[in-house]
Write a structure and sequence with these properties.
Elements lengths: L4 E3 L4 E3 L44 E3 L9 E2 H8 L2 H4 L7 E4 L5 H13 L1 E4 L6 H10 L4 E4 L4 H9 L3 E6 L6 E3 L9 H6 L8 E7 L7 E6 H5 L2
Helix pairs in contact: 4-5
InterPro entries: AMP-dep_synth/lig_dom
Pfam families: AMP-binding
GO molecular function: medium-chain fatty acid-CoA ligase activity
Length: about 220
């Protein structure tokens, strides 16, 4: 009834056989199901976050109470490929995303993960809690809204770059990406390529200590879900 026990170290398969004659033969497919493992393919390497998003007009994110228009996969891809934010972020940047749960938060998270490492944080944290989290997670940039005063105050206290999420749906933008002389189109183009082992997401969990635990997710790990 169960697949055979596998020995990956020696690449051998050991079958659990029934006593001879019990099932009209020395072994049965019921007790040796190694054939179920045949044909399993190793997922192809992911070179860009766009490899995981279909290039189609199908709905990627449904409408919500604040915006009745759904977002298609093509519109989502266009937001991710916007070179403006890419020119100001690098793979090594850790970007805190402090937004209320919803469609725009999800889109902002995906956008950051495409260009850098996203660090979503509880939008209900106090200023002191955000300062502590920014320090612990070594964030260099904060994405929030103009109405989130604790996040703005915490970011300014640590002199972190602030990007304001504006617009909705396919019009989602980030203010604060003005060209201050550091705009580098070549860097923006390079950002499309991802090292599968590089973390693109850090999740802070409650853990068992006051500081909690941090769980990293690489692109390789995410594509297996």
């Amino acid at each position: 009834m169960f697949p055979c026990a596998l020995s990956f170290g020696t690449a051998q398969v050991e079958c659990i056989a029934e006593p001879e004659g019990k099932l009209n033969g020395p072994r049965s497919d019921l007790t040796c199901n190694s054939h179920l493992l045949d044909g399993i393919e190793v997922p192809a390497p992911v070179t860009s976050f766009l490899d995981l998003i279909p290039d189609s007009g199908d709905v990627a994110l449904c409408r919500d109470s604040s915006n009745p228009e759904p977002v298609t996969y093509q519109e989502l891809r266009a937001i991710l490929k916007d070179p403006t934010i890419a020119a100001f972020l690098t793979r090594g940047d850790r970007v805190a995303v402090v937004l209320q749960n919803g469609r725009e938060m999800a889109m902002s998270l995906l956008t950051v993960m495409h260009h850098a490492c996203a660090v979503p944080l509880n939008p209900n944290f106090t200023e002191a809690e955000l300062v502590s989290s920014f320090k612990q997670l070594r964030c260099s940039t904060v994405i929030t809204t103009s109405a989130h005063l604790p996040a703005l105050a915490a970011a300014r206290q640590l002199d972190l770059r602030i990007l304001l999420q504006v617009g909705q749906g396919s019009s989602l933008k980030f203010e604060g990406c003005e060209d201050d002389g550091s705009l580098n189109p070549a860097r923006a183009q390079q950002q499309d390529f991802i090292d599968e082992q590089h973390p693109v997401l850090l999740l802070k969990t409650s853990g068992t200590t006051s500081k909690g635990k941090v769980v990293p997710f690489s692109m390789r790990r995410l594509k297996l879900y």
